[in-house]
Amino acid sequence: MINDPLKIFVTVVEYKNFSRAAEELYLSQPSVSLQIRNLENELGSKLMNRSSKHLELTQSGEIFYDYAKQMLLLYDKAKEDIDQLTNVVTGSLKVGASYTLGEYILPFVLAEFAAQFPTVNIEASIDNTEEITQAVRANHLDIALVEGEVTHLDLDIRPLMEDEIILVVPNQHPLARLPIVTADHLQDQVWILRESGSGTRSFCDKLISDWGINVKKTYIFGSSQAVKQAVVAGLGMALVSCWIVRKELNAKELTRVSIKGKRLARSFSLIRSKNHEMSKAMEVFTEQLFSHDLLT
Question: Is there a shared CATH topology between the 4-84 domain and the 164-265 domain?
């Protein structure tokens, strides 16, 4: 394709590594190096200084990087406009999601979208809310579904749905025998938490601080799935999205504990960069997302 050298150059710059760029593009490293050399020969200027440990853009490289990104966006827009002449949704869609959404909602939405629009190349990324948000801000992702509070002014943020947060404990935990608990019952307990940067972790930290809860001990896990399994195994208790423990509650593998006078909830949101133009694929995906049965 006519934009391949530009895409290779931009990918190398963003990954700051030839090998990782080659893996991302499904190319060999020599092929990537050759394309960069060909660009430098064509432009008559060195674009980057590289060593075994570092890769830095030259002044020419910085100029070309900015224009290369613009040219790639224009190419995609031109292709999209041509495709719209026949009402075909095509191109690419880079969608991200924080763990709860990425593991329990996004796969179902993408399955329907991909079945209806098989010519769209879809790349999905799952990480914690902070990492996904930064990827959207850097235009590494077109659009993303995140949990918790996001306030960056350079993002377009659309509320998606409310997510109920519930307290779950191991079946053998003393609190599992109580019909309802108060904040006092939560003092001096062992908590299972997500890592820093997670939307769920931010919610838990704020609640523990606001309620003045003294934490006996914490165990930190890097995914919602791991937190859930830690509770099932008897390691401690956790605040989690109701989405992630439906099967376990039905199977009576853990116990939900009600907190007196408290209903805990947060927002799921759809975010995109205000500087990133909406493609046809993004528009259609957004429409399908908001009308999906899981969210209505």
Answer: no
φ, ψ of residue 141 in degrees (nearest 5) = -125, 145
pLDDT per residue over 97-119, tens digit each? 999 999 999 999 999 999 999 98
CA angle 152, 244, 124 (to 5 degrees): 55
pLDDT digit string, tens, across residues 267-296: 999 999 998 888 888 999 999 999 988 876
Query: What's the Rg (C-alpha) of the chain?
Result: 23
Measured distance CA(185)–CA(86) in Å, rounded:
63
Give the CATH number of domain 4-84. Answer: 1.10.10.10
Does domain 164-265 sit in CATH 3.40.190.10?
Answer: yes
pTM of the predicted protein model: 0.70
36, exposed or middle or buried, with CB in 10 Å at 0-12, 13-18, 19+? Answer: buried
Instruction: Report d(CA 117, CA 1) in Å as an integer.
Output: 22
CB contact at 8 A, 223 and 197: no
